[in-house]
Amino acid sequence: MQKNLTARSIVIVVVILLCVFGIIGAPKSMAELKQNWQNNIRLGLDLKGGSHLVLQVQVQDAAKAEADQVIDRMKEDLKKQNISWNSIDRNDPQVVQDADSIQITIKGVPATQSSAFRSLINERYSDWVLTAVNSTDYAMRMKPSEIVALKRDTVEREIQTIGNRIDQLGLAEKSVQQYGRAGDEYQVLVQLPGVDDPARVKELIGTTAVLEITDVKDGPFASREAGLSAHGGVLPLNTKLVRSIPRAGSEGEQWYLVGRNPVISGREMRNARAGQDEFRKWETN
Q1: What domain range includes position 197?
Q2: Residue 108 backbone zone (phi > 0: left; psi -120 to 50: alpha; other: beta)
Q3: For residues 259 and 217, is the Cβ–Cβ distance under 8 A?
Q4: Straight-line distance from the first to the last Cα atom of the chain, in angstroms, rounded to the nearest whole number
Q5: What is the 8-class DSSP label of residue 185?
Q6: Quick one: CA torsion of 231, 232, 237, 239, rounded to 10 degrees?
Q7: How many structural domains comprise the chain?
C-alpha cells in the first residue's frame, strides 16, 4: 500500500514539474521568468480584462441592397425587351425585424405587355415572387427561403470580415462568433482580451467594404477628362468612370468606363481561386 502511494506521488510530482517546465522553460533570470509566464499563460477576458462588444448586423440593409441591384438589372432587362413602365421602387425597412418585408413595386406596365413582363420576371428573377396588384401594377417579394439565406449569409460574412479586420491588431486570443438565437437576433459577439480601447475596435470593424465585379465598357484613359472627352462629355447610360490602382511598372493613372450595375457582387461569391482552362489560359474559378 505504501509503495503504491509513493509511486503515485512520484508520478504526480513529475507531471507537475513537466507542466511547469512547459510553461516557464528554464529561465536564467527573473525577467526571463516573467516573460515566459506572460507568453505562455494566456488569460481570458474575465481575468485579463479587455473589450466585450455585441454588434447588431443590419440585415435589413442587406435586403435593401439586394433589392436595389434587382431593380437596376430589371430596368435594363425591360429596356432590352421594349417593355414600358412608369416607376420601379422598393420599400424601406428600417429595423432588423422588418427585413422580411422587403418589396419591389412596379407600376405602369401596359396590359398588352403583361405576358412578356411576367415571362421575363419568372425567367430572370426566380428568387422573387411576382404578384399582380391590378392590370398595370405589380409587387415582388423575395421568397422566404431566399431571405433566410440572405440574412444567414450576411451574418456569416460579417463574422468573417470582423475577424479579418481584428487580425490587423495582431491579437491571438480574439473571439468572434454569432450571439443570441441564430436566425432571429442577428448579432455578433466580439471578445478581445487585453484590448482596452473599444472605440478603436469599433472604428476598425465598422468600416464598410463592398466587393463588386463590374463590366468594363471602354478604356483605359489617361485621365477622367480624357474619358469624358472620348464620349462627347456625356457618359452612356448606367456607366461611370473609375480610376484603377496603378500596377508595378506602370506610369501615371488609368481610368476605365464601367457599368454601374455589378456583374457579380460579394453575395454571389463564396470563394475565388486562380486556375487554367483547357487552353492553359488563366481564369478565376
Answers
A1: 50-58+152-203
A2: left
A3: yes
A4: 69
A5: T
A6: 40
A7: 4
67 by Cβ neighbours in 10 Å (0-12 / 13-18 / 19+) ranks as: buried
pTM of the model: 0.60
pLDDT score of 163: 82
Picking from 90, 87, 89, 84, the residue whose alpha carbon sits closest to that of residue 111 is 84
Greatest extent of the chain over all pairs of C-alpha atoms, in Å: 101
pLDDT digits (tens, 9 = 90+) for 136-166: 999 999 999 999 999 988 888 888 888 877 7
87, 236, 265, 57 alpha-carbon torsion, rounded to 10°:
-50
Q: How far apart are CA 193 and CA 51, in angstroms?
A: 6
User: Which secondary structure element, helix H or strand E, spans residue 70, and what is its range?
Assistant: helix 59-80
* 190: β partners: 53, 176
What confidence tens digit (pLDDT) does each residue in 178-214 have? Answer: 887 766 678 888 877 766 666 766 666 665 555 667 7
SS3 category, 276: strand
Same domain, 221 and 272: yes
**102: number of Cβ within 10 Å:** 23
Instruction: Please report the pLDDT score of residue 46 as a whole number.
Output: 46
Question: Are 274 and 141 found together in one domain?
Answer: no
Q: What is the SS3 assignment for 38-59?
A: HHHCCCCHHHHCEEEEEEECCH
